[in-house]
Amino acid sequence: MNASLSTLKKDGQTLLWHGLALIPLVKAHGSPLRLTHLPSIGQRIHQARSWFKAAMQQNDHGGKYHYTYCLKASSLRCIVDEVLMHDCHLEASGSVDMAMIQQLIDQQQLPTDRMIMCNGYKTHDYLHAMMAMHQSGQVKVVPILDSQSEFHRLASGTQQNKEAMTLGLRIATMHDQTSRHGIAPDQVQSFVSDEVIPATWAKLVMVHAFMEGGMDGSEAYLRTLKGVIDCYVALKPICPDLNLLNLGGSLPIQDDLAPGRNQSGIIRGIVDLLTTTCREQSVDVPDLVTEFGSYTVSESGAYLFQVLDEKTQAKGPAWYQIDSSIITTLPDTWAKKKVFPCEAINHLDGERQMAQIVGLTCDKDDYYPEQNLPLLPVGEALYVGMFHTGAYQEGLSGYGGMKHCMIPAAKHLVIDGHSQVRVYAQPQPPEQMLQLLEGDSGHAEP
Ligand SMILES: Cc1ncc(COP(=O)(O)O)c(C=O)c1O
User: Fold this and answer.
1) What secondary structure, in 3-state letters, does the chain show?
2) Looking at the predicted structure, is the pLDDT value of residue 228 above 90?
3) Distance from the CA of 212 to the center of ligand 1, in angstroms?
């Protein structure tokens, strides 16, 4: 076996994923197949909560931890419904996220105690949706200011409400000094004193610290986080409602952990630093918020492909031609050279060779680098799986829609908590693509 991961187990010659036999699925539904395993999402959420609980108890942190799911990691409705069943808050990045959240509210799927963290650049439509949702009082909307200009635009659009609008403030971290996100630390204090505190329509409740380098628990990460905690400590005496520190996302998943690191150790290091710093400065320790996207959903996703053919050239390893595309299903393999665990799902004990998986498009980048895979058996099918693919791939590639070389989207199965398998989407029909390509030319502008 290539990958030794807790989600994958060998069962004779075949592979189990989350305990699920994969070969019967490809036999019943054909290939290529996309899989979404919903129970693993709840397991991840539960696991993170127990790491935070243990770290907070060890540090006598008597406050709360709020798990937030960011919709951008995957906005599939089955995933959002699953996340909400586990009492999560939501993070939005734009106006369409807000439309989805409003739909959830209208369908009574979103209890009123949930927070909606609004990150990202605030366009007119996005700000408008936040203000309308705040005024309706159906959920607690927390716009997270990325710049002073967002505050000014909110101020000019906000009507006087009984309830002040709760705000967060993203601090541009030194670690992120090339990042466009957040407000520079040396501008925070005067901005809050001169503009936010006098505004009767607003109250600052949250400081936000997302580090684009990832929540890796390294010395550099903790040094940067300390800078944000120092900002919190400086603001707290002048902002009595401030009681949340939002750590953002990017908790590494199992496959991305650096050697010698583990997620519980990373979380312990963060909570230790926070409680020690606050106590030294005699400031109440804030409640904690995270916005975990990839951690929540990565392990819930997989793709299964059939190897249709093998080709060898004068030099280099064999090419294994699959029945779909790597570049269109998993765009991060191309854009970020992201590695997804890859393993055959049958013939596991067969003799192996190094092979590159190649997609159906004619693009030279449509391949996955060399893997040690079973030889292509004569007269029998070989299937390969790409695992932990649940985050961001459909957002980048689009769900359905038009794809490079018009490769249709795979059939999509969803597995629920009772191991029931349901078809979420049929293989994409070519007519759907052709219709999209005709555009709206038949409809005159009003
Ligand atoms: C503000 C913010 N929060 C959370 C996330 C989610 O990060 P991840 O999916 O790595 O957990 C992102 C990702 O870009 C982000 O920008």
Assistant:
1) CCCCCCCEEEECCEEEECCEECHHHHHHHCCCEEEEECHHHHHHHHHHHHHHHHHHHHCCCCCCEEEEEEHHHCCCHHHHHHHHHCCCEEEECCHHHHHHHHHHHHCCCCCCCCEEEECCCCCHHHHHHHHHHHHHCCCEEEEEECCHHHHHHHHHHCCCCCCCEEEEEEECCHHHCCCCCCECHHHHHHHHHHHHCCCCCEEEEEEECCCCCCCCCCHHHHHHHHHHHHHHHHHHHHCCCCCEEECCCCCCCHHHCCCCCCHHHHHHHHHHHHHHHHHHCCCCCCEEEEECCHHHHHHHEEEEEEEEEEECCCCCCEEEEECCCHHHHCCHHHHCCCCCCEEECCCCCCCEEEEEEECCCCCCCCEEEEEEEECCCCCCCEEEEEECCCCCHHHHHCCCCCCHHHCCCCEEEEECCCCCEEEEECCCCHHHHHHHHCCCCCCCCC
2) yes
3) 8
Is residue 293 in contact with ligand 1, taking CB distance under 6 Å?
yes
pLDDT of residue 176: 52
Residues of the chain with CATH 2.40.37.10: 27-38+298-437
Model confidence, pTM:
0.96
Ligand 1 neighbourhood includes 294 CB (under 6 angstroms):
yes
pLDDT digits (tens, 9 = 90+) for 302-341: 999 999 999 999 898 999 999 999 999 999 999 999 999 9
For the chain, give every residue range classified as CATH 3.20.20.10: 59-292
| 389 CA from centroid of ligand 1 (Å) | 16
Q: How confident is the model at residue 213 (pLDDT cuts 50, 70, 90)?
A: confident
Assigned architecture for domain 59-292: Alpha-Beta Barrel (3.20)
Q: Is there an atom of ligand 1 within 6 Å of 334 CB? A: no
82 C-beta closer than 6 A to ligand 1: no
Task: Decide yes or no: CATH 2.40.37.10 for domain 27-38+298-437.
Answer: yes
Residue nearest to atom 12 of ligand 1 (CA): 249
